[in-house]
Target: Glycosyltransferase
Amino acid sequence: MTNFGFRFGTYSIAAYVRLFADQLPVFEPYDRIAYTDCDVLFNRDINDLAGQRLRAPLLAAHDDYMYFRPSYRQKLKLAPGAPYFNSGVVVFDMNAVRENALLEQTRKTAIQGKMNDQNALNVAFEGKWQTMHPNWNLQSLGTREFRFSQAWARHFAGGKPWGNQVGVELEALKIWRDLARDTPWGKPFEQRIPFERGVMKRFFRRFDAVTGLFGKDVQRRRAKYDGVKMHLIYARQADEGAMAVQFPEVLGGFA
Model:
């Protein structure tokens, strides 16, 4: 990575490994690669994730909640209405990725723009990715409608099971804790308090509509957001093999 010119600063070196999938010899025989962050817990066979039908070089989940802050498009120089995916769960079509040098382009974008891996991927793969079923990247950040038991892959994008544990369902925390037991890493997964953390945070989110009246644009959009509606929209798009939709906030009615 150093030879490519990376200067990581506060970013994790591990986060950039996915950008080198086309450079690592161990992956040369494969035409499909699934990547997940280490804060993802599966309720379904990961082969089902990797084996999905692809129409684009990348399959990824839309729902990173960036549409609450649409200024990211100007910041990253994306097209008007461009969606933004979370890179915590992605599937690469390696034949198309190699043919179009998309990861090479991502690396250059990250270095030249001093970007984190997720921003660089969104720039390089703009218009080249399709919708993943939201159950494959059901994020704990910002959701109150869906729980761990409903996920095919639960992504603890907010609180971590080894950190503050906010938004980590107790049944999921127990799995992490059991997996880590009798290892040197068991202690960070101990349950800190006898109930789930993050309940109050979800409660105060109910007052977003009031906060939005005072010019808080993020809260205003979030108050109009219907998580169940967006989940159904994305699920339908995934079933159809559709490319990522433009202006998702307009589609969802919370622009």
In short: The two ends are 40 Å apart (CA to CA). The mean pLDDT is 88. The first strand starts at residue 32 and ends at 36. Strands lie at 32-36, 40-42, 58-61, 86-93, 129-131, 138-139, 153-155.
